[in-house]
């Protein structure tokens, strides 16, 4: 048993058989009872004696100079404690950002997008704060807008950010381009000559919102030492901290962050929202300040998924082998950079999909525009590409007269495939197999709406609107598969920290796991307890609340937490185990020779040999002592992509899912009902099978949403958001969501803890193109944009 | 203004309520009952669902003043509410038409406190148990509203078809689960309720 080992070395599963509730079991959530009784404290549930409510005033125009701000009337309102603008910011640092520090805490001189924060109010009632904010007078002088590639990169385009000095400006062709990543391998032009068929397509991907249900919220409590305690829902406490402390003018140790209950995230909490604003108001008023966005504000309070324009060309030979691929992906990053550079890296490096193509010419860029800022959302750049390349695969198969699944299987990557970045896929890549599995599944019966009592409209497109009893309804079936990277890429130091303690409490050995991992619903807390049970042989595991009193756990994004923070928990447990065994050897080693010679395990509260002989009880070994280890853990390092060629071992691990969609379309009204969305996915090792299904089904449903309903509509004339509500921005209900049968493969990745594979995002990729393919199959339409709306299906657009 | 109403069996009084305040706000901010959730505050997501005189409503769309003198059940009181119903109608359900808890009984029951640190010490209703067991809870923000809606449906319709469940829960948005595990949970609660009813009937 290795107590320390090189980062990323193959792990040996030495524990787990003898302790209940370990990895591989569907143990139940430790927070489940609190969540079903209403006792779980979400960030919007925080309350403090004497607390004030904060309110943000946001710009009503997309791009304008701020001529004047008059806060006097707002300040004069009874119950108002503070009104803050840019001039009130306490520190020299006035901007923040995930990758580029380009985002003002409060607008200075100009606003760059609709809904940009301009002023803050604190008052004793949320309605008082809202009404006071409405009394702040701001005079805007509107500026010309840039809203797409043509307007943003025109020679005389107004610059969204003047005087850029970030690391990306040196290699971008225009200051309104955040980042550009080409990937060139082989000779696409030469290879195109071998193609018997060539297909081209231009695809449009709409702006999707994470639409987590728990709104941005938190409570900032001023402390006696001049610092602040912040209780907040986020995806990454330490990243927040690095951005918050400088603009408050405080050292990081004076900003103490604790994770409150998080009502979903999906990328939308990777950026700062209300954190800094609440702290500013608390420090100014000397009172605790709570900020809770309503849904309207939430649509402006976080970044969205990048809308994209994608142009693809693929060629293939008569016998169905891909010859080459050329593509250009233009992502609209909106007014601030957020995660745009990393999204560009993902979009370009995964633009080829899970296919073997030796000759490629790829370019991805992200724009600065006056549209809403875009950044992280589940799937992160890979989603948009998958929508386009999967449409291309269907077009190629149709041109060749081949079955779309067989065509994909013929070109599917596998372990050992060389990617366009020059990276070798060095763990299982069962692309052909997961396609085979979804295809082999029996199709749901036809005309399920028919019953002895006539049509059950609930089973039909249009549902209870009673728009059809089957007339004009056509079925379609479509397939798609995708590739997503796991973990942070391109040379990022993507580590996690775990503190694990073992001691005897009330006569029982107990492990305590303390990390800063943001539990956003995914079930990381469940898995951490399972890992501790497996590694330490205990039943009782306490999960300490996540805070900044322990080292960073990185972000709850990029499908990485079970891999990286799970890996850190495993590693720290192993180090604790080694110390516990050492303690045992000191106390009892003389009583039994196996203490010195055998490979020892902790199982069922005991120290046992690998032969199963019990050497002692953990209670006796630990009596009067506790063992604690805090350690960082890293996966294998990655490399940046070369800025000209895109070459480099940029990613840690890859994740694959395939979908088969079955839809029924009312072709007269353009209404779609998805009947079934079958999934097959390789998860490496299912640490908690029930949670794995939840991730796959949830991710699939978000992909369904952007296929047929979800889109933030931005007016191209004004760059204003037109539908910031759940009335107008629709997410799937239980009636819109079909049965989602899941086929889970467990092909171990020897480089990852327990062989696991990050799973959270892959199902979001292939779900959308599978639904689109099924609708194309039903209607015969080309459908080059998503989401599909009724007017796209009825020929009225 | 002052508003008097009964929450989870206890008479409550809220003072200084502004006329524009919703029932949701009064529950969450004035009565220390944040279990009903504030996901959209515009009646679209169902996460604030409570029962008002037995009828499921979005508490964000009910003005606090409208609740004067009425009965409200929130997720915090669901376990006690369900237990009381079970005692009144063993086996749950009321296909006979004798639905729910008689008003007289409803006015006599009270929600009991649980340990807010661990949730231990509290009993759970069958629907609450089923949501945990089936993996229907992820972030949990939609859960309180879904529990109230699902419990109310099972009271009316103890043996729902999948189409019935989907119809009854179509006003409750969930962003994490894809609804499959929620369907599983409601099916499980219905099956357990059915089994209990059979056992009661056999006695």
From TrEMBL, chain A:
PANTHER family linked: XANTHINE DEHYDROGENASE, XANTHINE DEHYDROGENASE SUBUNIT D-RELATED
Q: Which Pfam families match?
A: Ald_Xan_dh_C (PF01315), MoCoBD_1 (PF02738), MoCoBD_2 (PF20256)
* Top-level division of the source organism's lineage: Bacteria
Region feature (Disordered): 1-30, 443-468
Q: Mind telling me which Gene3D superfamilies this protein's record contains?
A: Aldehyde oxidase/xanthine dehydrogenase, a/b hammerhead, Aldehyde oxidase/xanthine dehydrogenase, molybdopterin binding domain
Per UniProt, residues of the Aldehyde oxidase/xanthine dehydrogenase a/b hammerhead domain are 37-144
Q: Which SUPFAM superfamilies match?
A: CO dehydrogenase molybdoprotein N-domain-like (SSF54665), Molybdenum cofactor-binding domain (SSF56003)
- Molecular function GO labels: iron ion binding; oxidoreductase activity
What is this protein's record name?
Molybdopterin-dependent oxidoreductase
Extent of Polar residues compositional bias:
1-17
From TrEMBL, chain B:
Give every 2Fe-2S ferredoxin-type domain span: 1-78
Q: GO molecular function, one example? A: 2 iron, 2 sulfur cluster binding
The protein's name in its UniProt record: 2Fe-2S iron-sulfur cluster binding domain-containing protein
Q: Does the keyword Oxidoreductase apply?
A: yes
Q: Which InterPro entries match?
A: 2Fe-2S-bd, 2Fe-2S-bd_dom_sf, 2Fe-2S_ferredoxin-like_sf, 2Fe-2S_ferredoxin-type, 2Fe2S_fd_BS, Beta-grasp_dom_sf, Diverse_Oxidoreductases
PANTHER family from the UniProt entry: OXIDOREDUCTASE WITH IRON-SULFUR SUBUNIT (PTHR44379), XANTHINE DEHYDROGENASE IRON-SULFUR-BINDING SUBUNIT XDHC-RELATED (PTHR44379:SF8)
Q: Does the UniProt entry include the keyword Heme?
A: no
Q: Which UniProt keywords apply?
A: 2Fe-2S, Iron, Iron-sulfur, Metal-binding, Oxidoreductase
């Amino acid at each position: 048993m290795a107590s320390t080992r090189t980062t990323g070395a193959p792990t040996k599963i030495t524990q787990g058989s003898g302790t209940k509730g370990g990895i591989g079991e569907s143990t139940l959530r430790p927070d489940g009872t609190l969540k079903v009784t209403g006792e779980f404290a979400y960030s919007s549930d925080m309350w403090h004696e004497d607390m004030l409510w904060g309110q943000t005033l946001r710009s009503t125009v997309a791009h304008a100079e701020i001529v004047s701000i008059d806060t006097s009337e707002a300040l004069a309102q009874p119950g108002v404690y503070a009104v803050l603008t840019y001039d009130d910011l306490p520190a020299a640092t006035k901007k923040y950002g995930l990758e580029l520090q380009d985002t003002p805490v409060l607008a200075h001189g100009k606003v760059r997008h609709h809904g940009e924060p301009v002023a803050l109010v604190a008052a004793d009632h949320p309605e008082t704060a809202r009404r006071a904010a409405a009394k702040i007078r701001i005079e805007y002088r509107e500026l010309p807008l840039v809203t797409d590639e043509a307007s943003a990169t025109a020679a005389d385009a107004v610059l969204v950010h003047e005087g850029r000095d970030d690391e990306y400006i040196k290699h971008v062709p225009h200051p309104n381009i955040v980042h550009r990543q080409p990937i060139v391998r082989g000779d696409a032009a030469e290879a195109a000559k071998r193609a018997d068929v060539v297909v081209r397509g231009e695809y449009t991907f709409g702006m999707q919102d994470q639409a987590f249900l728990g709104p941005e919220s938190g409570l900032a409590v001023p402390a006696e030492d001049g610092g602040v305690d912040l209780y907040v829902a986020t995806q990454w406490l330490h990243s927040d901290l690095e951005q918050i402390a400088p603009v408050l003018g405080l050292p990081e140790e004076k900003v103490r962050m604790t994770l409150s209950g998080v009502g979903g995230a999906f990328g939308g909490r990777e950026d700062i929202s209300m954190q800094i604003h609440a702290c500013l108001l608390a420090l100014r008023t000397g009172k605790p300040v709570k900020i809770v966005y309503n849904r309207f504000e939430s649509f402006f309070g976080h970044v969205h998924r990048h809308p994209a324009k994608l142009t693809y060309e693929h060629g293939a030979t008569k016998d169905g082998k891909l010859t080459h691929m050329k593509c250009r992906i233009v992502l609209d990053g909106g007014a601030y950079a957020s995660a745009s550079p990393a999204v560009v890296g993902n979009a370009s490096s995964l633009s080829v999909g899970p296919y073997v193509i030796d000759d490629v010419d790829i370019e991805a860029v992200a724009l600065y525009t006056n549209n809403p800022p875009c950044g992280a959302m589940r799937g992160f750049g890979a989603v948009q590409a998958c929508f386009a390349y999967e449409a291309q695969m269907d077009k190629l198969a149709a041109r060749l007269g081949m079955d779309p699944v067989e065509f994909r299987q013929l070109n599917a990557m596998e372990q050992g495939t060389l990617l366009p970045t020059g990276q070798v896929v060095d763990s299982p890549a069962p692309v052909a197999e997961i396609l085979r599995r979804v295809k082999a599944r029996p199709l749901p019966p036809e005309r399920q709406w028919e019953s002895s009592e006539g049509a059950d409209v609930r089973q039909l497109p249009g549902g209870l609107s009673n728009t059809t009893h089957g007339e004009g309804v056509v079925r379609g079936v479509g397939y798609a598969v995708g590739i997503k990277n796991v973990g942070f890429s391109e040379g990022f130091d993507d580590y996690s920290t775990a503190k694990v303690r073992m001691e005897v409490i009330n006569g029982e050995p107990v492990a305590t796991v303390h990390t800063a991992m943001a539990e956003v619903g995914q079930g990381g807390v469940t898995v951490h307890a399972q890992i501790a049970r497996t590694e330490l042989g205990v039943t009782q595991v306490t999960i300490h609340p996540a805070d900044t009193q322990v080292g960073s756990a990185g972000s709850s994004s990029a499908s990485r937490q079970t891999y990286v923070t799970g890996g850190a928990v495993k590693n720290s447990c192993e180090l604790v185990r080694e110390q516990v065994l050492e303690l045992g050897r000191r106390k009892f080693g003389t009583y039994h020779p196996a203490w010195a010679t055998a490979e020892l395990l902790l199982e069922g509260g005991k120290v046992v040999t690998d032969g199963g002989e019990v050497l002692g009880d953990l209670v006796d070994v630990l009596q009067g002592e506790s063992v604690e280890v805090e350690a960082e853990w890293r996966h294998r390092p990655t490399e940046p992509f070369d800025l000209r060629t895109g070459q480099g071992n940029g990613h840690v691990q890859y994740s694959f899912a395939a979908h088969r969609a079955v839809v029924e379309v009312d072709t007269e009204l353009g209404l779609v009902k998805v009947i079934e969305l079958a999934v097959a996915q390789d998860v490496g090792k299912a640490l908690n099978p029930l949670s794995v299904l939840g991730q796959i089904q949830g991710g699939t449903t978000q992909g369904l949403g952007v296929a047929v309903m979800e889109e933030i509509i931005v007016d191209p004339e004004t760059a204003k958001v037109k539908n910031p509500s759940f009335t107008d921005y629709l997410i799937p209900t239980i009636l819109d969501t079909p049965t989602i049968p899941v086929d889970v493969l467990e092909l171990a990745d020897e480089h990852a803890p327990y062989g696991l594979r990050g799973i959270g995002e892959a199902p979001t990729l292939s779900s959308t193109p599978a639904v689109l393919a099924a609708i194309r199959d039903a209607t015969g339409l080309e459908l080059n944009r998503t989401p599909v709306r009724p007017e796209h299906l009825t020929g009225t657009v | 203004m002052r508003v008097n109403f009964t929450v989870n069996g206890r008479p409550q009084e809220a003072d200084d309520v502004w006329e524009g305040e919703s029932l949701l706000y009064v529950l969450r901010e004035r009565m220390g009952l944040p279990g009903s959730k504030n996901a959209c505050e515009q009646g679209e997501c169902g996460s604030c669902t409570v029962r008002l005189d037995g009828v499921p409503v979005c508490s964000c769309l009910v003005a606090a003043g409208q609740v004067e003198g009425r009965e409200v059940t929130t997720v915090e009181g669901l376990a006690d509410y369900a237990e009381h119903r079970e005692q009144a109608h063993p086996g749950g359900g009321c296909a006979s038409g004798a639905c729910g808890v008689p008003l007289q009984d409803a006015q006599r029951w009270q929600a009991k406190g649980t340990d807010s640190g661990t949730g231990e010490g509290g009993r759970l209703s069958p629907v609450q148990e089923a949501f945990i067991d089936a993996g229907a809870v992820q972030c949990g923000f939609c859960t309180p509203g879904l529990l109230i809606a699902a419990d109310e449906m099972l009271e009316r319709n103890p043996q729902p078809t999948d189409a019935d469940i989907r119809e009854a829960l179509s006003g409750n948005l969930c962003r994490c689960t894809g609804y499959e595990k929620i369907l599983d949970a409601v099916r499980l609660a219905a099956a357990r309720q059915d089994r209990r009813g059979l056992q009661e009937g056999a006695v």
